[in-house]
Amino acid sequence: MLELTANTIHYFQAPKDYFWKWVENGTVLEFANGRTICYREDLTFILSNLVIPDQVPVGTILLLLCACKDNYKELFEPDSYLFKLGYLPVYTEEEHIFVKQRMQQVLELLALVNALPFEYRSGLKRIALFQAILEREGGYEGKRLKSLTNEFKSGSLDEQVFGFQRELSYTLVNSDIAPLVYALQQFQDTAALELKLRTGLSVLPQPAKVGLPAPVPQDLMEQLAADLKTAGIARLSKKIIAALNIPMHLSGSSDQSIGGVSDISNRGHFDKLLLSELAQDDLVLTARLANNEALFLQREAMPASQQQQWHIILDTTLKMWGMPRVFGLAAGLAFNESKKQVQMDAWALGGESIVEVDLNSRQGIITALEQLDTGFNCGPALKKLMTEQVSAKDKYILITGSHYQQDAAFMRAFGQVKAQLDYLVEVDRDGRIALYETLGKKYHLVNQALIDLQETLFTQNRTLRKSYEVAGLPAMLNAADFPLLFPASKIKLHQQTVFKYAGDRVAILTLDRRLLSWQHKDQGALELIEQVDSGDAYFGEAKGFLLLLVRNFAAATLKIYQVDAANQTVLVNTIDNLQAVHTCFDGGLFHVSTADSVTAIDPFTGHQTSSRFTVETIKKAAVIPHFQVLNQVKKLINNGYSVVNSAKSIYVHTAGKLFVDQRELRLDPHGRFLTWKENGMGAVEWITPAKRETMEIAHLANLKFTKYMWADGSEAVLDSRGLLHLKSSDTRVAECTLLLVLEKTTAGWSADGKLTGNPYFTGNRQTGVMLAADFYAAYIQPFIQRLK
Description:
alpha+beta; 5 domains; seven-stranded antiparallel β-sheet
């Protein structure tokens, strides 16, 4: 008991000439300049609820209480009074240097604490704040400090505590500031301390280092479709698979994992019980199972399937040159794709030569296309192959042209090996393909089809807005049909970036390499191409298509975009190894001059012919001869608004309003429209994002996306095209996109197909349109409420 009394007196007794003291008979604690720090009851209440060691002195708590005041620097002048504590005459030289350095660190921590939002440093929240700052690893029960506080609260020691003062020493000063110096090492800034108060963690846990799975190999057909050289043959192969309906026993799809029902037995698995048995009473069923009286279905056993190797034999002789050669190779690829279980071997037959080809890789397909032989028929090579390679267990498919029946030399060789072949595929220049089974004396026609080769091989369309299934992208970027029209953004009018086509329509290539199109003054832009390759641009128009040639001189490549604005499709042709110096469009062709010649390029096929232009005349040709007045374009695209392409902050204001910088998203009193309005009160932020980062999107490299993330998982993405994408952490709320336009009412779109706002941006759509107030209540307000 005597020890507790002595410790209590020592703990609460004020030092002489220190920064704090007891006044008003021990009811008030004052700073050295006479300002009130707190009342006795406030101090004892805080100490009673802290779980810290009693080695943390009262002076440490009082310094933290000073920092919790809003205007603590003006109120207590801590820089001046605490600085003096570094120059006490009782210090040695080393102690003086040490205290001076540590006092500066204490002032840094006090400033860090004072920078917290007021809610964290007022009222009961101060207890959690002091606990976070003063607690140590391992934790403490805090019983000794509670005992000292209870003894002090009793009042029995007031005379000893308030009637005397302790001597000021280096040890006393150092014990007061040491916990704060240690805390500064734990919390380098206010954000770290706020994180500790909100989550109980000083540092957010890092994502687990999980190794990425091995990339899934791209499907062969996808590889071929992505290459302009082989895209046609991929489309033709798919059409052959669909049209020819390859037999099941050829493709292997008839191999079933289970047979039919062959019998009924009194033994088996419970999942094979007859349904009638399940209708029995529980006790009856149990008795029948125990006595082997219950009946089970018995499946028939499938015969052991013998794995067979399939082989494709391609005729590449003279009469197969041209379209039949491509048609035949596409047929071989179709059979190879259908037989997924086992890859097929393939040979290209010439008059005498036998070359093994690979139909399982893109490069192998390209190499197979290059196989040409000047022989008149492949009979000798076929006979040699079947003699050397034939196996009774294997299957063989011969692909040739319909001409073989008129070639006597071939028919002699074919007759000798016909019994060893299993199937014969005939292809013709007119697109006819037939599949015969050759077993027996007569051919058996299995299937036939007629395919438009010209359309399949040389016409390629892709949707203008592609869907990129990439994690983290706003829903709008994966939307097949984004209904909102775009605002005029990042536009510099120039002859090489502006083109008038299809009457009064105007196409503009923006600074961020997007191709936009305007049709009416009262409607926004349609995004024809979301990303055009870098290079000089040249426009043209033919056959109802908008044509755009992009010349990359350094890379010696040309890209020609064929845009069908009405159907929202675009075709891209790439021409390599052509270093164009000058370019113009005339007579439905692009005319390109190199260092010593001029070439005319058909924009629809990429076919190159000699041009009627010379190097000199092409330099003088007008790039856009029919377009003269840029003012007409200005009047068409400028509708009295500006676009926000970048912002410093996105946050929710204390009034529950969404802000981008100092622009508030405002719903008019009648709930008819949404606008972004300047609002000075936006300087007061409330709920700010915890993290901000720049998103890198490979297929949109010229656009800038800035993602803002809140602690609850909600996200906002600022799109440099003038779009704001909102994604709530509440998965029940659909993602939405808002246009960031000023001086004009805006528009919005949600991922579940709803839209609202100015008809200038909605295009006067009639379906899925919501009143602005309903749209705000369904998507914007839940986003804000989730943050609150």
